[in-house]
Amino acid sequence: MNKRCVGCGLVLQTEDRNQEGYIQSELIEKSGLCERCFRIQNYNEYKVVDRTNKDFSNIFKKIDKSNDLVLLLVDLLNIGELEEIGKYIHNDIILVLTKRDLIPKQIYEEKLLHYFDTLPFSILDKIIVSSKKNYHLDELMELVFKHKKSNRVYVVGITNAGKSTLMNKIIYNYSTYKGHITTSILPSTTLDMIEIPISEDLMFIDTPGLLVENSIVDKVDAETLRNIVPKTELKPTIFQVKSNQIFLIDQLVRLEVEEENNIVFYVSNNLPIMRFYKDNDKLKDLEFYTFQMNEKEDIVIEGLGFIKVMKNSKIKVYALKGVHVYKRKSFL
Fold first, then answer.
1. pTM of the entire structure?
2. Measuring CA to CA, which residue among 4, 44, 10, 1 is closest to residue 28?
3. 118, 35 in Cβ contact below 8 A?
């Protein structure tokens, strides 16, 4: 039987260091990690792997053909366009909203849950968790045992939704499994299915994250990405706008507000937000979008975060080329 890397799920091989799944031959019996995962886990060195959702199509087809329960993980700060999930998965689904520890504590959870009442596919249940804080993990396990139809439960979601982090916490809390799944802020860390035995009657199967097209994650270097990805609870930055003003989010986004308004930035605390009262040319070379915003709508910059707009107004947004920028009903 081919031995698989416990970090990314690939079949281990000893022939070619430049190919995925490589491990030194003398380590293959005592180490469960390919060289790439070893270097990510121990040195934070990430080797880029080029993948598209088509590369994972056979995995999604296998899930879809099964009758097994699916945990669909969604990052509360980067929801993505969940319609994509419906193209691949038609199983029974528990919606798991992750990274509660990053959302301001004063936000009512009922409001967060209610936002997902009109998904384009049906779900059995939904729950908010924080892997970092062990928040609601016992309740999640209760839901799994309540709804599962077999011993196998698949874990799916958009890349960086927190699948592998959640699985590592469940391994630590509820099993004697010795593996540790490789985690990284960069996409395509998990490359194949990873079977995680929890007990005699439960096995989780971690899967590669669905890639979001036109995300800022794919447009910046690793150092910038470390600043983009929040690590602590967001501190919303609120501005009162009395007249035409310009806002810059680091060197990534330019926002022009033309009318009186209140706007709230929900982005990583590591990203500086600068306000200008006079027109300038900073970041005007980026792609721009013009939105007629209605009261309490968000502007979403895919992979970066969102900006809540409190009043009707016209707003122009400049962003890195190819990054998806759109508006939606206010999330918070």
1. 0.86
2. 4
3. no
